[in-house]
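Q: What structure does this chain adopt?
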Amino acid sequence: MSIVIALDSFKGSVAAAAASAAVAAGWRDADPAADIALRPMADGGEGTLDAFAAAVPGAERRPVRVRGPRGTAVDASWLLLPDGTGVVELASTSGIELLGDDRLPWDADTTGFGQAIAAALDAGVTRLVLGIGSSASTDGGSGMLRALGARMVDADGRDVPAGARGLAAVSAIDLTHVRPMPAGGVTVLSDVTNPLTGPSGAAAVFGPQKGLTATDVEVVDGVLERYAACIARHAATADPLLPGAGAAGGTGFALAAWGADLVPGAERVAELVDLAGAVAAASLVVTGEGSFDGQSAAGKVPAFVRGLATSRSVPVAVVAGRIGADADTSGFAHALSTTELAGSAASSMAEPERWLREAGRALASRQG
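A:
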């Protein structure tokens, strides 16, 4: 058999490359003769930088120290490609994993992401590719914009604090000194298609996982609506209803206001690693992510890979840390949860590669 294994990272547990390799190892335990092609995936979130680094010969990591989502220094990096493109990942600079088990729903922000973008601009990149999944905040990308030169003040003309807390106090926004985009433009890899505000917006859908209570969600949604109105006075491209505007706590909106193009992240990474070419020759495709649930249908890796495989009449299986009750598993030949294989979420997360290997072995046995 010819198997393509294209998993995303299991957030906070195991990177995409290691996850894909573990499933492959399990498959080979049961079927040593299998022809296995590894295509680790990303959708703009955690692992996007690694995907580019692995796929582009000559890519060079550039270290950068930035202000992380809790306000302390974080050592990160951005990637310089041989053609002059800079790749910057929000997850490694302002991501939720940098908070550990903590959540700072009102105070976390995207300053570090903006600082890393500024570092790439300082290095003279001709184009930017920005991955914006896995954010820690719902700050509307305000921290990023301020790191690029924007000023946001309250009614007394004082700079507002970081995060959603600061947005609540914003009275005026000055974008006059925001740095220009590089000549080749800015492409944003987004893992969701949500708008900025409303029942499908950044606060309502993603705020709870970042620590917002039900009451907070309503307040922050209103804050983002007022913030969007302030930005729109200065930027014609600021559209809160744009698909992806709600990505990364509204960072998609801020980047669109800067003039960036938002595109589906999984699709662009798939092009980079020639996933379509590998799938065309496959007998089965295996994809997956840490939590496969109702949100996975909106731009996440498993849904994209399922669509690609199905369009070529190739069966596809999904392996996830957990499979939510609201997950759409239709169209998958098999759906395996490492939590079920391990007996508990704690056991699965304690030894993720072991249970991913078990999942690979189980899939091979089912195919046999």
